[in-house]
Amino acid sequence: MSAETSAEMGDAPHGSIPTAASGVAADASARGARAAAPVVEALGVGKRFGSTFALREVTMRVMPGESHALVGRNGAGKSTLVSILTGLRKPDTGEVRFAGMPAPPIADRDAWRERVACVYQHSTIIRDLTVAENLFINRQPERRGVIDWRAMRRDARALLDHWKIGVREDARAGDLTVEARQLVEIARALSYGARFIILDEPTAQLDGEEIKRLFTRITELQREGVTFLFISHHLQEVYEICQAVTVLRDARHIVSAPVAALPRERLIEAMTGERGGLAVADAAARAPLPAGTPVALDVVGLTGADYTGVSFQVKRGEVIGLTGATSSGRTSVAEAIAGLRKPQRGEIRVAGARLPPGDVPAALARGIGCVPKDRHHEGLVLTQSIAENASMTIARTLGRFGIAPPAKKNAFGRRMIEALGIVAPGPDHPVSGLSGGNQQKVVMARALATDPQVLVLIDPTAGVDVKSKEALLSVVDRVRDEGKAVLVVSGELDDLRTCDRVLVMFRGQIAAEFDAGWQDHDLIASVEGVSLHEE
């Protein structure tokens, strides 16, 4: 699908199979929305940083009352477009219009707040302030020159009630759930008068039930006249909550279409420029391991703050999935195995040798490599180069006294760039200048640097694009073929398809086990604690 042939699609092309999207808006309101002026338009918008084009003549229209998805691979131009739509950057070419009128001057921040707001993946809520203080920060009601606290709390309560957001106005924001903080940010945006809200990866830190509640609230707000631009790497969510979608690729607008007119395979094709869906090896096609294959990882009665009595084994050449809701304890178990978190009780054995609890150097020495959950805070030093990050765990083997010569580090960095397909000018390039998918490949490189016997991957494809996801998951197959054990800890179904077995955690315990070839609905039901086969 080319940019030249897919500017704006109205109806499904002949022979396509429509995909069911959620029926958020009734037919009558949809017809009315089409007749109205777009809430926002980017018309031929271009942006350039030096010799690099971040956007090339991008056009997008978002209609009133809809949820409009913005998707594309990392580096496609989504973040630049959002910064232009929110008035943080001025386009070099083209213009932005709200309800048919030109956007206000960049310097007029109040005018921008009245038109648009963005709820970012990393919250802008100030955790040590109350909900009321966050809602009215820098515009608190005053009485005789001082803040009128009673009026602020009253106004906050009225605002929360109006938008049906069930949190206390005097609650400390840091004590709220991620879901509640997002809703407070939405309420703050609406209080300025904005009815166009950009949601940047809103479900990245939410579990299944929280996502359902957020989507319900989005649907209700749409009915009250709020319009959303929804940015997500989870394509299934696009079909669940959005009515329209725009795809960017290589800084260009590729297609805008009704979601129902763009099946998943064609959506991925538009994002990648290649035909076919996600190419992930399905473990169901693998031959079983030979009898008597040695155990690489043995977890016995592991107990921590949010999990109890967890036991399982992973054999050499086996890939095991560990899944469950965000609150199931799966991440804590994985971090305990990698030495990042100290369990209260239980044992972890690697090739029969007991692993000291909560000891990262010991875990590395015993042959455990780990891709942690949060690449920015646990996986990378953003100011350092690809080579420095990738070789961090093997500095002692590259040079005396743990000081590796730059030439050796760069040589190792070049090998990892080639092995993992990291897109970068060279090994001395800082990781802060890489896309999210390439940053995650650097984290993977660091985990592989020690030639681990057990590889622990925690949410390995979170926040990366389709092609980066394929590249990262292909490493699992490669490591498995080398006879190493892999533990994939994730809530992403695509991550789990590469697993020989999937263990499901529910409320801190292993509740079910699925062999390769499982059905999506069975696994999802187990994660949610629902039995589909009760008599």
Task: For this entry, give a set of tags.
535 residues, alpha/beta, Rossmann fold, 2 domains, six-stranded mixed beta sheet, 19 helices, disordered N terminus
Summarize the structure.
This protein has 19 helices and 22 strands. α16 packs parallel to α17.
Q: Taking all residues together, what is the mean pLDDT? A: 85
Give the CATH superfamily of the largest domain. P-loop containing nucleotide triphosphate hydrolases
Shape: globular
CATH topology of the largest domain: Rossmann fold
Largest sheet: 6 strands, mixed
- Estimated radius of gyration: 25 Å
Describe the 3D structure.
With 535 residues, the chain is α/β, with parallel strands linked by helices. The protein has 19 helices and 22 strands. It has two domains: 1-66 and 74-111 and 232-272, 3-Layer(aba) Sandwich (Rossmann fold), CATH 3.40.50; 295-527, P-loop containing nucleotide triphosphate hydrolases (Rossmann fold, 3-Layer(aba) Sandwich), CATH 3.40.50.300. The chain has a six-stranded mixed β-sheet with strand order 6-9-10-3-11-12, with helices on one face. β7 and β8 form a beta hairpin. α16 (436-448) runs parallel beside α17. This is Ribose import ATP-binding protein RbsA. Residues 1-20 are annotated as: Disordered. It comes from Paraburkholderia solisilvae. Keywords: ATP-binding, Cell inner membrane, Cell membrane, Membrane, Nucleotide-binding, Repeat, Sugar transport, Transport.
Write the layout of secondary structure elements.
Elements: H1 27-35, E1 40-49, E2 52-62, E3 67-71, H2 78-85, E4 93-98, E5 101-102, H3 109-113, E6 117-119, H4 131-135, E7 142-143, E8 146-147, H5 149-162, H6 178-191, E9 196-200, H7 208-223, E10 227-231, H8 235-241, E11 244-249, E12 252-258, H9 264-272, E13 295-304, E14 307-315, E15 319-324, H10 330-337, E16 345-350, E17 353-354, H11 360-365, E18 368-371, H12 375-379, H13 386-390, H14 395-398, H15 406-420, H16 436-448, E19 454-458, H17 466-481, E20 485-489, H18 493-496, E21 501-506, E22 509-515, H19 520-527
Helix pairs in contact: 16-17
